[in-house]
Design a protein that fits this description.
Blueprint: H1 3-8, H2 12-33, H3 41-51, H4 60-67, H5 71-83, E1 87-90, E2 100-103, H6 105-116
Antiparallel strand pairs: 1-2
Helix pairs in contact: 2-3, 4-5
Length: 126
Amino acid sequence: MSAIERRTKPTQCAFKARAQSQLNLRRQQRALFGNGWVSDAWWEFMLIIYASEQGAVIDRFSLAGETDQSFELTERWLTLLIDHGYVRRVGSQAAHDSRAHELTDVGRATVEQCLGAAGGTAFGGD
């Protein structure tokens, strides 16, 4: 990688800042317009997991609370994200309800690709 590429390629820290910026915007939208007007729960779940991957436990209850989604809808979206290879569950089968979720390598790369597109404006970002 050349020096120019190193200077212009967004870092993971920059991606996390963009993810947090998008989450803040979505929270402001929800506060102004109500939950029914803010769509793409799957994208918001991926942003939350991405932005908090530094050892934070993100379980389905935390995701539901962060996004004002029902537990059933949250579980449905998580199952779809898992089935498509973007997210995986971490933890024991016995603790199913409290297992953490993390992005797979494909999920992380996808989020970073979207956050890097147009300076982080993909999917209604900053």
